[in-house]
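Sequence in, structure out. Go.
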Amino acid sequence: MSTAHTPAGLGPATRPRAHGGVGESALRPDGTLKVTGEFAYASDLWHEDMLWGFTLRSPHAHARILSTDVSGALATPGVYAVLTHADLPAATRYGLEIQDTPVLADGVVRYHGEPVALVAADHPETARRAAARIRVAYEELPVVGDEESATAPGAPLLHPARDDHHAAHVPHPNVVHRQPVVRGDVAAARARADVVVSGDYEVGMQDQAFLGPESGLAVPAGDGGVDLYIATQWLHADLRQIAPVLGLPEDKVRMTLSGVGGAFGGREDLSMQAHACLLALRTGRPVKMVYNRFESFFGHVHRHPARLHYEHGASSDGRLLYVKARIVLDGGAYASSSPAVVGNAASLAVGPYVVGAVDVEALALYTNNPPCGAMRGFGAVQACFAYEAQMDRLAGRLGLDPVEFRRRNAMEQGAVMPTGQVVDAPAPVAELLRRVKARPLPPERPWETAGGAPDVRALPGGLSNTTHGEDVVRGVGYAVGIKNVGFSEGFDDYSTARVRLEAVAGQPVATVHTAMAEVGQGGVTVHAQIARTELGVTQVVLQPADTRVGSAGSTSASRQTYVTGGAVRHACQEVRERVLALGRARFGVHHPAWEQAELVLEGGKVATEAGEVLAALADVLEGEVIDVEREWRHRPTEPFDLRTGQGDGHVQYSFAAHRAVVDVDTGLGLVKVVELACAQDVGKAVNPLAVTGQIQGGTVQGLGLAVMEEIVVAADGRVRNPSFTDYLIPTILDTPAIPVDVLELADEHAPYGLRGAGEAPTLSATPAVVAAIRAATGLALNRVPVRPEHLTGT
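Output:
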């Protein structure tokens, strides 16, 4: 296997386009099955002699386990195994960045819902009833719920103090990670400022709310290993954590991706993977685990709730002079990916604006709240809500149009980030704002009908017939955001692809094999498009994702089309070169055109750039099979300095802008988002229809955070709304028109010039909606989600 950084030819230029290739809206191969309900998700897995696993979870947020009696569960007919911490065969902790998460509670529970014991039985209801018979005696401990209780003198230490290189840079052991970003002279800039605006902001805990619950099937193997079929975002990261827990080498833990019903970051951490494998190896039987919806809320991490304080200074002509900010993220009981989320929040805290002086501090806390980690937007969402509110306040103080104020300060290519990194690709922030503002506004009072009763469907809360428009007012708001693409801060971010080309029944067929987790983002479509474009074939077979091939990294950070797509392209280019070498050896003596520097594969043929066909691919192959596995890396990044935050920490930036139009019933505190227009630069739309879908989907998640989505955690650390009855997400009835304007300004450093597209719209959708509500009501609204009582004062 070879490895490479950006190979020659991986810039924006493309080969002659094959049908269904790059730039076309090729249809998803799994689309029809998903629409008709025939697609097999992980929860549909079945084995003829399988057992069912169930997890007993803590009813307390912080407690010491005094004793555990499993005899009642073991005596239940149909029960095959009961496991607690004492039964673990090897490593007892795991974690994405810090190995601090117990496989099963190790004498202390640190959050409501933490796994305490496992049961395997011959029926899921038997397993559930048996788990209920486990008797656990707890001694409740003080709950650490916020920064004050986490860092006060004498605060309970939730984890032992670490001795790694980050430890010296955190103010308290209950701080997971701290990252400052300091650039320029803030004090001098403050002295020059004509206008200073400060504000405190709060973001609630959002859930990924994927519709497919955590599920998988573990099958013990004859070699003492285990085969795990699982819904996840990163097979090889799971493998790295699971194998030590099982006490097995990695080659004895074989993982295959099963159908994934959404992810959005919530499947980056382990849930039931190790638990199912432990039960399978203990019982010698296949074990299936499927979380119900209630359990799913405890089984994965959530978006970090945040408290943010911002201070901005500007000159009288509307130029930003400085930003001072403090961002406190609640990481919950375990670290998960909190250090990386802190790095994102700190480095992107200023937004897509040029500011000479910056003083930012971001940190994440250990608390007894539910663990938080990756969710779409990854730290940038929380910052964007605050800095965009500040932009509106500054514009108001200066008497400027909010879009004009943003455009005066918008970064462009060549701008310097607060981290000192130069933005060396297009940064069309001003143009995105111009485009969303230039769109025609939707008609006012859309519920009014000619001579008839109001169309209540167009009113806030209209389907409940709560109003006929008496107290309804309209507002318009704008926001723009910046998001990094790919893993950052020196992480070795690579992907692996294996491409095979052969002739089958006289036709060339390409087979692509990666470990990429398809979670709905469309990689299964994109990889086939790349193979068609690079190899000039029509038939492309995608092998199931598993650990028989090298890692593809996580399906997160908007990175898969960039990095795994880059790996597929890199492997295809090697296959192409071998095809041409074969052709030259077989036919070159008969036709001098074979010695041309540039030959293309198109339509199953080898041709010159002028279009002269030299041979059919099947004839060139003549029974040969070309099989290539390659790794590909984007250009390297570097860690941020832990004192100053300086460093080229990100590989690429993505930008999106929104204009929100809302109608607000000020009497009832109800909001209807009428339109949520988006403009986004994607570099190159590899699949334009899929890109539009990603932008609209991210926009709806931002809308949810703005007006309805929040996991409510009581003062005692207990989750109060772990169900879709009480945790509300937007439905089709809440989803407005979402017109999308896609720019394609190529990033010369990326394959095909593309730019990761999935996360950026989630950032700016939330502050745009809230800005529109502020415009309608005149209220400050410094917290999301905005609730009816925030609008009515009751």
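Check: Confidence is low (pLDDT under 50) at residues 1-16. The two ends are 65 Å apart (CA to CA).
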